Amino acid sequence: MKRAALTPALALPLAALALAAPSAAFADATIQAVDESGAGPNHWNPDTVTVKVGETVTWSFAGTGLVHNVKSESGWDLSSPFAVAGAAVTHVFTTPGTYKFYCQLHQSTMFGEVRVTDETGAPPPPPPPPPLSEQSYANDAPPVSVFEVRDKVRPRLDRVKVTRARHAAKVRFRLSEAGKVKVTLTRGKLTKSRTVTVRRGTSTVTVSGLRPGAYRVSVTARDLAGNRAKAARRARITVRG
Questions:
Q1: Cα–Cα distance for residue pair 171/200, rounded to 1 Å
Q2: Which of 3, 23, 82, 117 matches a 20 to 30 Å C-alpha distance to 198?
Q3: Which residues 6+ apart lie within 8 Å of 124 measured at CB?
Q4: What is the pLDDT of residues 43-75, one digit of tens each?
């Protein structure tokens, strides 16, 4: 009895499937750094991946125009120099678990995690607490990186709207990235101001304890790297008793 031969049309797809399946099964994960654009803020794409023990995760900075890096949150060694379109960073994960990472300059939006399963594909155990050297205490000052000055991109401050309230002024605005915003009200020699730290997006700041009268309002902003918004936003408001 003769065996039927595969026709060329059928043999080609089967050959391609045989070659593709092993590489897909053992493919490493790649996480791409993405600059802020009209589609959203600075972020990782994807920000969460799942791999098996022994597999490698690569963080790529190809095509970026801003300064980025990648650093582990605790308990494992991963870092890269601050640079525009810097070299890719790779790490082989040998223990099941959940490993968190972030960009030091854009921590509010560029963060994620790697979930490492065992050979059976079982979900990773909860992450261990960070070592004592990385735990924060109430009297700790916020960390400041010497590399943060390399971020030269100014934040955008817009959509500023000032409304009055009883003995107070409410200032609504939008900031393009996390930073600090200062609202100052001036009436003759009287000056009252308030500085707050805000996330990216729309926020509202209320300055209370104002006496009745006409005030000049100034709104300024800086990002977490110290870059100042291009221009202070100014307005006038009359506060009533």
A1: 16
A2: 82
A3: 96, 97, 98, 115, 116, 117
A4: 999 999 999 999 999 999 999 988 888 988 766
